[in-house]
Write a structure and sequence with these properties.
The complex is a heterodimer. Chain A is α+β, with helices and mostly antiparallel strands. Chain A folds into 2 domains: 3-64; 76-154, Glutaredoxin. Chain A contains 7 helices and 4 strands. Chain A has helices at 3-18, 25-36, 41-51, 55-64, 84-88, 91-102, 147-154; strands at residues 76-81, 115-120, 132-134, 137-139. Chain A has a 4-stranded mixed β-sheet with strand order 2-1-3-4, with helices on one face. The longest helix of chain A has 16 residues, at 3-18. Chain B is α/β, with parallel strands linked by helices. Chain B folds into 5 domains: 6-108, Glutaredoxin (3-Layer(aba) Sandwich), CATH 3.40.30.10; 133-339, NADH-ubiquinone oxidoreductase 51kDa subunit (Rossmann fold), CATH 3.40.50; 353-436, Roll (Ubiquitin-like (UB roll)); 455-529, de novo design (two linked rop proteins) (Up-down Bundle), CATH 1.20.1440; 543-598, 2-Layer Sandwich (Alpha-Beta Plaits). Chain B has a 5-stranded mixed β-sheet. In chain B, strands 11-10-14-12-13 form a 5-stranded mixed β-sheet. In chain B, strand 3 (58-61) and strand 4 form a beta hairpin. The longest helix of chain B has 18 residues, at 461-478. The termini of chain B are far apart. Chain A binds chain B through residues 22-27, 29-30, 57, 60-61, 64-68, 82-85, 87-89, 120-129, 131, 138, 140, and chain B through 14-15, 18-19, 52-53, 55, 199-205, 208, 240-242, 278-284, 295-302, 316, 357, 359-361, 365-366, 397, 400, 431, 433, 435, 439, 444, 447-448, 451, 454-455, 457.
């Protein structure tokens, strides 16, 4: 079985496990997002068939919530907190510097698929403001000067 | 049960975990074992201590020594000195901010940050291991549930909550007991209890800390609520962005089931109750109660008009009672100690305590729980230690995107629901962000509008389109393109949105603009009419200048300038070409003579 086929099989198991839950669509989409890294149209179709709902309904929910993306994200997702506590302490400057350093606008992925840069609302680590995360690594009390050193950790050649 | 002579409490909240507290715990365990102390000393990972600024924090009991900013390499010294030889490691002890005092004998309650606090909702946070139900039980856990189920009627439970004066801590401030009563009165074959843990206000992390530090308190309260209103099923809707909270809540639910505190025939009274977790998926609007319930139903999280209220028709069309995390965190204590005990605290119409997440330009960032009626000044200066780096306080923002910014002149306002609204802000869920002289209030208003535009669900036109128009005006103002009449347009839009948006989020969305216009109108006017940002924050309005008297002609600024806007010969004063200047500030950073200023 190819990697994709085994992922589809896993998706069907997720659907099977949740299908009798009230409000199953959300947990199933969350499972799919984690499994595929995104929920493209073919995945949405499988979910619609599996749960017996329309594709329009699946698409409607998938596009409503920020957690679900229709395109795959980069290997490393960089999130800069733009919550109030981080914002008043200058996180916008950190985000701008990252955008400049990576050469991509906020909300997009580098052409090599390595980094996705996004702004996020309050990670809840206000004591460490300004905060950014790279996947699950947390960097607190960030300044624009430190941005380069953080990126190099994930892309040594940069 | 094993008896230990000392306990090492390490904060495992999100803040301290982010700065490496998990490594500390490993290192403590290694070192304690290496010294053969593992039968004498126990290491416990607790929930949030509250003083995030000092993280990672460690407390050693029975002495109560409070160590702050602990690094992995400090652990060896604490073990070999304090735990082995009984000598406190003075240089790692917390330093009091205001006095620079470093006193190893000071207990937690003697420290400024803690001594003005009154902890009810946070009583177990930083005290017990949240992943161990036995520790919760040892702190009178589930006693209130037992008391309610075995000695009180459903009506008596509701009466007690009603009499306590507890109001919704999510921000609305609706009397909790009334909500319980209305849901109790609804007739249906199935009712639900739900918990709103979709803490979306930026800069607020009270609910997360309670879930991380004391998850059983929420489970117990929801079971009590289930008994009172006649529900056998509950849902907790948590942000997916809170992985530690979700994990600890899941562990706690499993443990409660194992102990028979959830499930069937609880305390052999015939009462059945179980709980499930549902994860949010990153939509701010889901903090609104009708939107939250649609999300649990697996739909788009769009609000619907009320009535019908959830107490009549809520989740899956059944009567539903939805409370916020912090509200629930008070319930067991009210049942245990009685409504009179609770109602003795606070002000006339706001009883008990409130948790605030102090953040922004403040020395002691963290979580504080104060009695209602405490003046803002006391929270910001006595507990929070004021603004860092000697900067001047400008405003405090409460209530998140629905709230407002209050100036210095209102700092003596005693904090309660009604006072904050009268002052032009609101209680909100408890975010309290301090701003200093470097923060531009027009930019802060623009920041909140940006948030609302991003998070508006799009269902109603006033919120979807109106807030966008407001943001466009604010964007222009901070870019120096403000026009005569902009302030009036903002005000007109704000009033219309307030009056016509579908849900609470839309109704309150213009508040950050209205409150800054009320208290900081001069800043708006300076941007629009004088093309000047008084806080020197808005880049488009800045002008960099070199003082020829101070410039030594070292050329550092000219080399730093990315736009080649600085010219001059060596050892002669340099000049900035304002047309070429990008206003990046690199020159100012590089100048060693303080010759460059911005206006």
């Amino acid at each position: 079985m190819s990697e994709m086929e085994s992922k589809y099989a896993e998706l069907r198991q997720i659907i099977e496990a949740h299908k009798d839950w009230p409000g199953a669509l959300m947990p199933v989409l969350q499972g799919a997002q984690e499994l595929f890294g995104c929920v493209p149209e073919d995945v949405q179709k499988i979910i619609a068939e599996g749960l017996g709902v329309t594709l329009a309904e699946v698409y409607g929910v998938a596009t409503f919530y920020a957690q679900f993306s229709l395109q795959p994200k980069g290997e490393y997702v960089i999130s800069v907190c733009l919550g109030t506590a981080c914002y008043v302490k200058g996180s916008q400057a950190v985000l701008d510097k990252l955008s400049e350093e990576l050469g991509i606008p906020v909300g997009t992925t580098t052409p090599d698929g390595k980094f996705t840069l996004q702004a996020t609302r309050c990670l809840g680590a206000c004591g460490l403001a300004p905060v950014m995360t790279v996947n699950s690594d947390v960097y607190g009390r960030m300044t624009p000067d430190q941005v380069h050193d953080v990126i190099v950790k994930y892309r040594p050649e940069a | 049960m094993d008896i230990y002579r000392a306990h090492v409490l390490v904060c495992g909240g999100t803040g301290c975990s982010s700065s490496g507290s998990a490594t500390l715990i490993e290192r403590f365990n290694e070192q304690i074992a290496a010294h053969g102390l593992d039968k004498e000393v126990k290491v416990i990972r607790t929930g949030c201590f509250g003083l995030c600024e000092a993280g990672p924090v460690v407390i050693v009991y029975p002495d109560g020594t409070f160590y702050s900013h602990v690094k992995a390499e400090d652990v060896d010294e604490i073990v070999s000195e304090h735990l082995l030889k009984g000598r406190k490691v003075e240089h790692l002890v917390y330093v009091e901010h205001a006095t620079h005092e470093q006193n190893a004998e000071k207990k937690l309650d003697d420290i400024n940050f803690y001594k003005h606090q009154h902890r009810i909702a946070l009583r177990n946070c930083g005290v017990i291991d949240p992943e161990n139900i036995d520790e919760y039980l040892a702190m009178d856990g589930y006693k209130a549930l037992e008391k309610a189920l075995t000695t009180m009627t459903r009506e008596e439970v509701i009466d007690e909550v009603l009499k306590s004066g507890l109001r919704g801590r999510g921000g609305g401030g609706f009397p909790t007991g009334l909500k319980w009563k209305f849901t109790y009165q609804s007739q249906a074959d199935q009712k639900y209890v739900a918990c709103n843990a979709d803490e979306g206000d930026p800069g607020a992390f009270m609910d997360r800390s309670i879930l991380e530090g004391d998850p059983h308190a929420i489970i117990e309260a929801m079971a009590i609520a289930g008994y009172a209103i006649g529900a056998s099923q509950g849902y907790i809707y948590v942000r997916a962005e809170y992985p530690i909270a979700v994990k600890r809540l899941s562990i706690a639910i499993d443990q409660a089931r194992e102990y028979g505190l959830l499930g069937e025939n609880i305390f052999e009274t015939g009462f059945n109750f179980d709980l499930n977790i549902r994860l949010g998926a990153g939509a701010f609007v889901c903090g609104e109660e009708t939107a939250l319930m649609h999300s649990i139903e697996g739909k788009r999280g769009e609000p619907t008009a009320r009535p019908p209220f959830p107490a009549v028709k809520g989740l899956f069309e059944k009567p539903t009672m939805l409370n916020n995390v912090e509200t629930y965190a008070n319930v067991a204590q009210i049942i245990l100690h009685g409504a009179d005990w609770y109602a003795a605290m606070g002000t006339e119409k706001s009883k008990g305590t409130k948790v605030f997440a102090l953040g922004g330009k403040i020395n002691n960032t963290g979580l504080v729980e104060i009695e209602m009626g405490t003046p803002l000044r006391k929270i910001i200066y006595d507990i929070g230690g004021g603004c860092p780096n000697g900067k001047k306080f400008k405003a405090v923002q409460t209530g998140g995107p629905s709230g407002g910014c209050l100036p210095e002149s209102l700092l003596d306002t005693p904090v309660d629901y009604d006072n904050l609204i009268a002052a032009g802000s609101m209680m909100g869920s408890g975010g309290m962000i301090v701003m200093d002289e470097d923060n531009c209030m027009v930019d802060i208003a623009r920041f909140y509008l940006d948030f609302i535009v991003d998070e508006s669900c799009g269902k109603c036109a006033p919120c979807r389109i109106g807030t966008k128009r407001m943001k466009e005006i604010l964007d222009r103002i901070v870019e120096g393109k403000g026009e005569e009449g902009d302030i009036e347009k903002l005000e007109a839009l704000a009033e219309t949105i307030k009056a016509t948006a579908l849900c609470g989020l839309g109704n309150t969305a213009p508040n950050p603009v209205l409150s800054t216009l009320k208290f900081f109108r001069d800043e708006y006017e300076a941007h629009i009419y004088e093309k000047r940002c008084p806080a020197h924050h808005c880049r488009s309005l800045l002008q960099f200048k070199i003082d020829p008297a101070k410039c030594k002609g070292c050329t550092a600024c000219a080399r730093a300038c990315p736009a080649d806007a600085i010219t001059g010969t060596v050892k002669q004063p340099h000049v900035i070409d304002v047309k070429k200047c990008l206003k990046c500030g690199s020159c100012m950073e590089k100048c060693r003579f303080g010759a460059i200023s911005r206006e």
